[in-house]
Amino acid sequence: MPSQYNEEVSQARQTLSRKLQLHGYCVCREALLLLDDHFRSYYAKNEYESIEDFITKLHRTITFETHDGTSVISPDLAFTIVQKLCNQKKQTSTQRETETTQEGHSQQQAASSDCPETVGIDEEDRVPSSDSLTVRVKNVECDMGQEQQQVGNKTSSGTACADKGKSDVDFKVHYTFLYKRLISLPIFKEHFHLTTLGALTASTQPSIRCICYGLLVKDVSKIDGYTLIDNTGRVPVRITPDTSFRNRLAYLNCLVLVEGVYVNPDDILYAANIGLTPVLLDPIEDKTLACQDEKMIIILKEIYMDDEDICKAVDLLFTGYDALAEPPLLFILIGDFTRHPCRPSEMKMYTKKLMRSIRACDNLKQSHFVFIPGKRDSCIRLQDGEFEENKAMPKVPLSKEQMPVNFLTLSGFENVHLATNPAHIYVGDRLITVVSHSYFKELRNNLLHDLSDRNEELLETAKQIILSNAHLCGGISKIYPNSMNLWHRPDLLVLADTEAFGNRYDYSSGKQEDTSFMTLPSFSRQSNQFKVYYLKSGDIDDSEVSVEAFKEIEELTLDDSDDDDEPTDTNSGDVVVLES
């Protein structure tokens, strides 16, 4: 009996570990013991409906009630999670008792009075106020520490360089996560059947008509050779002129559905149809944290603080929003923060100017500021002592030596976050995912099929690939690192491509019921342009710091000593920022 009990406990812990991995968490052994003991004790009391219910509550606790943005659950973090989950259970039971006690009183009060105003006040009291809107930044797991990243080897790819064993495990976990969701769709339950590649190669039938789901990659040993990969194996794919594509643009290194005929003697899958799957991710649903009032989120990319003109534009931008009666809720500032790679101490000299511009705006003390490193902000030290940009993804947060945020925190700005690249930002019931790397350049290298006639189709296809594959490397790499996964459907996806320059790549699609998607202009290279996202409606506006404001400030500066002419009375909120 003891051995059987120990075996059951071990299997239960392995199941919990796999479930947590499918939701993007890495758990060490001691942390797993704490979480498993908590789950089994409360599951026995019917406090959790299932293991999925427990993981959902765990995820919300990490996101909204802890200040830890990592995907690695350490023993200390596990202990904090268990404490908070226990407190939630106590609060829930206390609330139920209070509601039960007050129910009889409310009924008596309603019977004795027909006053509708009382009911209205009670309803308003139960609605969460917008002032208590929660903002949390979840950093992704980085394979290399910051010290290793600065002295590490250069990489030629924009994706994380991991050993083959880890990348295989990451792919299997991610594929299993999507495959289970795919086969749960009604169309595959009632009408069609997915066939694994292992079942094809093990079959003795001469030919099999099938639908397979896998990663389509290039076979470098053949000129027109392609391979489909899933958890059970790999099969060569033949694409002919008769092959039809469900999407007007198709790319390699994507998880796709391939319909065709597998010929056993040739060991080739002849593709008849190839297409992306629908989006399989669930949105974040926590309506108790919903935004009641419209809030602005300001998003900028490439703020070159080593350029004096850009420093003036940044001053004007923050001054303009500081003058508003209700300032923006959140500023997302994405690198690069200097025009050329530089040492951390040199970068600090320039980013201090950014800190001073923000610190001068007292009305922005309640706003949140998220700093995300750009392509050249995370440098590597070469053997000759010089610094060069690190192309590996993901990128660790900027250090305080690079971004001296203590200048802000000591001045009363408490909501300052140093985030990884990519980063996931939870604002109430909204999820904003931000990634900055050369996505479109690498995507073009993997073009498989092109019937597009509008530039917008490229940008919509990029959005569809990332969401359908639930991965920020979808379409650009056959390595799917766990740190670049999407575990929930974002409400806003920000693709701050570092090399997509010009109006051709300027794109915004604001949709309240769907994922809003935007690329970002360069604040420094494209006339001080940036984007404004409205949290409640999901709308996106193109904005810029106006040239007229520059001229007017210069005139006021020149005439500052002249008392004969009074300066023109202007509204800084209207002059500094133009929105179209």
Task: Briefly summarize what is shown.
The protein is of the alpha/beta class.
Layout of strands and helices, then pairs:
Elements: H1 2-22, E1 26-27, H2 29-43, H3 51-65, E2 72-73, H4 75-112, H5 116-126, E3 135-139, H6 146-151, H7 164-183, H8 186-190, H9 197-202, E4 207-218, E5 226-230, E6 233-238, E7 244-245, E8 249-251, E9 254-263, E10 268-276, E11 296-301, H10 308-322, E12 330-334, H11 344-359, E13 368-372, E14 379-381, E15 387-389, H12 406-409, E16 416-418, E17 423-427, E18 430-435, H13 439-444, E19 447-450, H14 455-469, E20 492-495, E21 508-509, E22 516-519, E23 529-534, E24 540-545, H15 547-558, H16 572-575, E25 577-579
Parallel strand pairs: 1-2, 6-10, 7-10, 11-12, 12-13, 13-16, 18-20, 20-22
Antiparallel strand pairs: 3-17, 4-5, 4-9, 5-6, 8-19, 9-10, 11-23, 14-15, 17-18, 21-22, 23-24, 24-25
Helix pairs in contact: 2-4, 10-11
